[in-house]
Specification:
rod-shaped
Amino acid sequence: MANRRVSSRTRKAAIARLEALENDNGALEEVDLNDDEEASLDEEDDLG
């Protein structure tokens, strides 16, 4: 019986940690991958 209580507590704690991680990931910032302004090389940066 004690093992069941520990197992249940462990399971509940793991679920709580997963839910907390999911909530943290909700605030990620969207990044524009097609923004060429910063990605282009300037004349000074040209390696060729």
